[in-house]
Design a protein that fits this description.
By secondary structure, the protein is α+β, with helices and mostly antiparallel strands. The chain has one domain. It is 17% helix and 36% strand. The chain is built from 4 helices and 13 strands. It has helices spanning 8-24, 188-199, 210-219, 224-229; strands at 34-40, 50-56, 60-67, 75-80, 98-100, 106-112, 115-120, 128-134, 139-152, 169-178, 232-242, 248-252, 258-261. Strands 6, 7, 8, 9, 10, 11, 12 and 13 form an 8-stranded antiparallel β-sheet that branches. A hairpin with a 4-residue loop joins strand 8 (128-134) and strand 9. Residues 1-23 have low confidence and may be disordered.
Length: 263
């Protein structure tokens, strides 16, 4: 569904709120030992000027490059550090053990234990897309929402253990779920039954969508059907567990709080 003219102010406010939520997650992560920020000279054939930031942790280095003409990070990478090897310098050239993140666009959020979190370049509903990677640069989970809590549920006795899931992770966040249907359309009951089956939500009736949809419907009455028939976003609290066997479980932690139209 295309964004209707006149929605700009509404969307701009949501964008600013999303950015504020994104900045607030810093407190959820481990603090880096130190970081370095270097200028990146312009390359006329690729990008304009930019900055390269290297974040150093006890066992990891995260590299993130931003360019003035690029949305989101132009480069993201993870390098595992070992005591017996020299710590790589902060430089644009790729280090020997550096692994590029090629299947995710966005920016670096933070590190928790052996897990690396990246955020999306844009908001998604009222949340932020995020992805969880191992220290070996393998993506193990992604979703969209506002992170509230990140907890390592067991200590790692040996950081050289081969399996990423030897350090189970527990996430709590407000999920922004894009339903495959509209809760404002005529067949609300069928849509909600589908959402329940896909998410595990147990409430029998959907949240009230009227207050969120009506401002959009009033902007251009001729496009009311387009607004109503587009998919709905649904926000609800979840608990996601990545357990010691590598199994991921996403469990609702309460009822759906609100629904609103997708832009």
């Amino acid at each position: 569904m295309q964004v209707i003219a006149g929605f700009a102010a509404i969307i701009a406010v949501a964008s600013h709120e999303t950015q504020a939520q994104d900045r607030s997650v810093d407190q959820l992560f481990d603090k880096p030992l130190y970081k370095q920020i270097l200028p990146v000279p312009a390359n006329p054939t690729e990008h304009g000027k930019g900055t390269l930031t290297c974040f150093y942790y006890p066992y990891l280095m995260i590299k993130e490059a931003y360019y003035e003409d690029h949305k989101g990070a132009g480069l993201l990478s993870i390098t595992s550090l070992r005591k017996e090897k020299d710590t790589p310098a902060c430089q644009f050239d790729r280090a020997k053990d550096e692994r590029l993140i090629l299947d995710w666009g966005g920016h670096f959020l933070g590190v928790k234990g052996r897990y690396v979190f990246f955020g999306g370049a844009d908001g998604d509903g009222s949340g932020i897309p995020f992805a969880v990677y191992t220290n070996s640069a393998d993506r193990v989970f992604s979703d969209s929402g506002v992170l509230h809590s990140i907890k390592l549920t067991e200590p790692v006795p040996n950081r050289d253990l081969r399996h990423w899931y030897t350090n189970p992770l527990l996430l709590r966040y407000r999920r922004s779920y894009l339903a495959p249907c509209s809760l404002r359309a005529d067949d609300e009951k069928a849509c909600w039954n589908s959402v329940r089956g896909l998410t595990g939500l147990t409430q029998t009736t959907p949240p009230d969508c009227g207050a969120a949809y009506e401002p959009y419907e009033k902007v251009d009455p001729s496009q009311v059907n387009d607004v109503r028939n587009g998919p709905s976003f649904i926000d609800y609290d979840v608990e996601t567990a990545l357990d010691e066997r590598g199994v991921i479980r996403v469990t609702p932690a309460g009822s759906a709080r609100k629904c609103y139209p997708a832009p």
